[in-house]
Design goal:
337 residues; D-Amino Acid Oxidase, Chain A, domain 2; 8-stranded mixed beta sheet
Length: 337
Amino acid sequence: MFAMRLIDDTGRLLRAAPVEFRAAEIELPYFGLNVLNHELLEALRASGAALGERVQRIEEPAVEVTLGEDRATVRTESGRTVSCRLVVGADGRQSVVRTAMQVPMRSWTYPQVALVLNFRHQRDHEGVSTEFHTVTGPFTQVPLPGRRSSLVWVETPENAAVLKDLPADRLSAEVERRMHSILGAVEVEEPVQSFPLSGASVQRLSGQRCALVGEAAHVFPPIGAQGLNLGLRDVEALLASVEAHRDDPGGVAMLAAYEARRKTDVATRTAAVDMLNRSLLTSLLPIQAIRAVGLGALATVPTLRHVLMREGVEPGSALGAVLGRARKLLPGRRASG
């Protein structure tokens, strides 16, 4: 994906100017790669198989986790047990590891349903993702290889149910209409899936001999392409923390390091996605005005746009750059003597 466009399609009195983010503006070849789920899973399976005996795969559900001071124990459905110094909860929203941690999880719902599908189109997308902001939520086209794209279409539950039951030709025509024909004629591919929108976050990402990653720790609506990316950054930070504390993976120092690496990123992304989604749903004119002014500033102020783009692809980089510039502007200290 080389670029992303944001278009206010709410039809309201106070509308934001279109904004376009281009990776080349911050000297990147692209913002990211869009990979189909089944292709990603196949790549992960192949990577695991290439590790041979270094990775042991147990084809059974984990039903219970016991956390001790020195080790954690996982019991499978057949009664088999596995003991280790660190257990990672990468087991999704109904995480068995999180249950064993007894960590509070705050969850919420939105009055929205996301339709998710892939479609073919007449014109080349040129590696550009277009996100239309509507009064029911984002309508986001994401480029795939060739003249294909994926779509996340956020609607009211009632509208989503009607749309999902439409014949393929009528749904294709509706997708083209909602996209203002920017990609020409559209052909929707099966299946069309739907997901009620919700969110969740835990108070802490680690416990005794355990750590949480992905949707075991945070749940995002499919807005802004944050869910998978955040989970991958969780894993990256966890591996870095383990590497720095190889003497005791799963120990207090290692888990504290992981918590410190991830806490800010998870909290800020959760707040940003929630605020963006709710700002589309509100009928309050002051909120609409703030949103319009904010997006307008991104469209007209390159420095602000560049900071946001860098923060999007590398969390914390914008703050680091600001601090670096501030240090250069500070007067040098005089030597005493």
